[in-house]
Design brief:
This protein has 14 helices and 23 strands. The chain is α+β, with helices and mostly antiparallel strands. The strands form six sheets. The chain has a five-stranded mixed beta sheet with strand order 3-23-22-19-18. Strands 13-5-4-20-21 form a five-stranded mixed beta sheet. A hairpin with an 8-residue loop joins strand 15 and strand 16. Helix 2 crosses helix 6 and helix 3 packs across helix 12. It is globular.
Length: about 475
């Protein structure tokens, strides 16, 4: 809020005045009302392996995170460029593999990657779009310095919280909205539905039928799956609701089987089709890959996108963007050491106490070491894992992440944040609603914002004035 000095940044001027003048009990009351609202409508998430709290509320902070229009325009251009390059990369590695022939990436990093999907080499998604919905995590380290922390191109989550956070703020703090020109995010469902319909199979000659595929209510993001289906006005289906006949996907309805043209899946590749992937899976349906291959079904996001989430692939994104677009990346990567390389591994092992070390296929804040906050025993245990299997890890410097004012138990405190905007890509290109999900590390000094690790969320305001 204060930038690098003591003066309040212009976008935060009215927020600062509100915080200075609002009674402390009012802020605490509004926070309690927000929690009650979330509890009543059932906005929860599950933590796998946590027997004591299978369902939790994500803590919500009522002080919004502010982004100026100038800052947003810069982010928007960089995000669209990045997602365009990701789609071109996926088209290439499941096709001609020109980037490998050019020596930009090592063959083994792609072709031997656990997330490389051999089945996808024979599947061509409609309009060449692999990543229809991308969640790109952004961190800020200075007044004009933004970094991409990671790419989420497989089944990115969190958009329901972006939308519900805005609704709560509109209900609880209308006076703040009256003093700002906040860009709307409420049209995200309509934009998402239009995006999905635009990538229907070319032979679909009627209005495409869209459905959302969920693993079921035991999944940690089930609330979001049902929320999105409701907002889109489409059916929420599980594998048991589906069948494939003559290479066409159908869902059960009270009026008989109904054809599905576009399936927004929230099920990982391995569980989509027991004929093509894991034979024991009960989450998908036999024949869904054949329906896609026959040109009768679009799967969003496309099969095989998981490799774009790999953090070792991420480390090559500046080269990937340059190779496919002919431009330098507008958004920088966090400097990254690939532990699969001997020199990088040597450096990382010698500086574990200073670095953040992550599994290349990790997510949710699990399987990582934050060196400056780790004990000696944790560092040594991680050293053993890293030495035994260096290919599984990357390391990054501990960035001085920006903080936002956050309502603590005893007043306003600074807490570290990141931002996940959602990029939608259809037949006519990419769009982004102005905003995203701001995640906040509620523990003092913590850099881990994931909800599974105790993080919370904020409403994100892109100001038009």
């Amino acid at each position: 809020m204060q930038g690098d000095g003591s003066a309040i940044r212009d976008p935060y001027a009215r927020i600062a005045h509100w915080l200075d003048t609002a009674p402390a009990d009012l802020l605490q009351t509004r926070r309690a009302q927000a929690e009650l609202f979330f509890r009543r409508i059932g906005i929860t998430f599950a933590v796998y392996g946590d027997a004591d709290a299978a369902e939790r509320l994500i803590p919500f902070d009522i002080i919004p995170r502010i982004v100026s229009r100038r800052e947003w325009q810069r982010l928007e251009a960089g995000l669209i460029q990045r997602v365009r390059a990701l789609n071109m990369f996926l088209n290439d590695i499941y096709g001609p593999r020109e980037i490998l022939r050019a020596g930009i990436l090592p063959d083994a990093l792609v072709l031997q990657n656990p997330q490389f999907c051999l089945a996808a080499t024979t599947l061509r998604p409609a309009h060449g779009v692999y990543t229809h919905i991308a969640g790109i995590d952004i961190v800020r380290t200075g007044a004009d310095q933004f970094y991409v922390l990671e790419d989420n191109a497989r089944t990115p989550s969190g958009v329901s919280y972006m939308l519900e956070n805005r609704e709560v703020m509109l209900r609880l703090l209308p006076e703040l909205f009256n003093k700002h020109r906040v860009a709307p995010v409420e049209d995200y469902p309509e934009t998402l539905l239009a995006t999905l319909r635009s990538v229907a199979p070319p032979r679909c000659a009627r209005e495409p039928t869209v459905a959302v595929l969920t693993p079921g209510y035991h999944n940690s993001a089930y609330y979001e799956h049902s929320f999105l289906a409701d907002k889109l006005g489409v059916e929420l289906v599980e594998g048991s609701d589906l069948s494939v006949r003559d290479d066409v996907l159908y869902m059960r309805t009270t009026e008989g089987p109904k054809r599905i043209d576009v399936l927004y899946r929230r099920v990982d590749d391995d569980y989509l089709d027991p004929l093509a992937f894991r034979a024991e899976s009960m989450l998908g349906v036999s024949g869904i890959v054949a329906a896609h291959a026959a040109g009768n079904l679009t799967i969003a996001n496309a099969i095989g996108t998981g490799i774009a989430d790999d953090k070792a692939i991420y480390s090559y994104m500046p080269e990937i963007v340059r190779f496919y677009t002919g431009q330098d990346a507008l958004l920088e990567n966090v400097p990254t050491w690939r532990c699969r390389e001997a020199d990088a591994l040597s450096y990382v092992l010698g500086h574990l106490a200073e670095l953040v070390v992550k599994e290349v296929d990790g997510s949710g804040g699990y399987g990582m070491l934050v060196g400056p906050h780790a004990s000696t025993s944790e560092i040594e245990a991680f050293r053993a894992k890293l030495t035994a299997n260096p290919d599984k890890f990357i390391a990054q410097p501990t960035l001085a992440l920006s903080t936002c004012p956050t309502l603590g138990q005893s007043g306003i405190v600074p807490r570290h944040v990141d931002l996940r905007p959602f990029v939608l890509t259809g037949a006519k290109g990419s769009t982004i609603v102005p905003g995203g999900l701001t995640r906040v590390a509620l523990k003092e000094g913590s850099l881990v914002v994931n909800s599974s690790q105790g993080g919370g969320t904020k409403d994100t305001w892109v100001l038009d004035d």
